[in-house]
Amino acid sequence: MNQFLIIICLVALSSCAHQRGPASVDGNPVAYDSMALGNVKASATKRFSNQEVCFDIDLVTKDVDQNQAQASNWTLAWIDKNNHYHLLPVTQRDPASAPQGGAVVAPYGAYTEYSNHFTTCAPKAQFNDVKGLVLTPKELPYAKKDGLKLTWE
Q1: How far, in Å, CA of 21 to CA of 121, rounded?
Q2: What is the pTM (predicted TM-score) of this model?
Q3: N or C: which end of the chain has fewer CB within 10 A?
Q4: How far is CA 153 from the centre of its chain?
C-alpha cells in the first residue's frame, strides 16, 4: 500500500513540474521559454490589436544587473510560418518604467531578481502566420546560445 501511495505522489509531482502556466490569457495564446538553467524566463501573449499582431512579453531574470533586464538589452524577432525572421522594435509598457526587483534573500543565499514587461506589435503580420518569437539578449552573464524561443503550437 505504501508503494502505491509513493507512486501516486511521484506521478502527481512530475505532472506539476511540467506546468508552465496557462496556455492562454483572456483567450490569447501564451508561449514560454527559459535559458541559463531557468535564471532567465520569458512568457509572451500574442493578441490582435488595431489591424496588427501585438505581443506582451514578461521577462524575469535572476543574478543579472538591472540594465540587463531593460528593453534596450534585448532584440526581438517574430517567426512566420515559413520560418523567416522579422525584426521588431522592443519598447517598455507605456509609460516606460525601469525593471522591477532587486536583492532577494532566501534560505539558501541572496541573489538579485528583476522583472520587466515589453510590448511590441507587428503591423504587417497575420495572426495565424506568427508561429513564434525569438528574444535575444545583447549582454548577460550567462551563455546566450540562441536566446529565448517562444512558440505557439
Answers
A1: 23
A2: 0.76
A3: N
A4: 16
